[in-house]
Amino acid sequence: MKKTMIKPVLLRDDYELLISLINNRTRASYDRKNVNRLQTELENSQVVKSNSFPINTVRLNSSVSIVDLADKSEFKFQIVLPDRANFASGKISIVSPLGTAMIGYSVGQQFTCPGPAGNKIFLIRKVQNAMP
Hints:
With about 130 residues, the protein is α/β, with parallel strands linked by helices. The protein is about 25% helix and about 25% strand. The protein has one domain (about 10-130): Transcription elongation factor, GreA/GreB, C-terminal domain (Chitinase A, domain 3), CATH 3.10.50. It starts with 8 loop residues before the first strand and ends with a strand.
């Protein structure tokens, strides 16, 4: 059975901000592999205006709850721009592997995140957004 790929859905304002981040920052300021993953994710996304954006979808500044499907552990954090990231405060960068992997996916969807020990699969349990 062939697995259907789900296209991430991005808010147009977030998409434009992230493209600008990629184009205007020196790639040396971030891990090149992570920036390349983010760029690929952006290129493969469906970009929509705010009136068409699903409210339960992960975007910049979303507060997210995910579950590791392997060990059922749950994680909660906010997806932010790199200069606001602070893991101790529960804020992870959109340029991090986890931030990039989940952007554009919705509650109930699974996503794969690359890591040092291999890929991990997570389920998005909850998303809270403040719409513009």
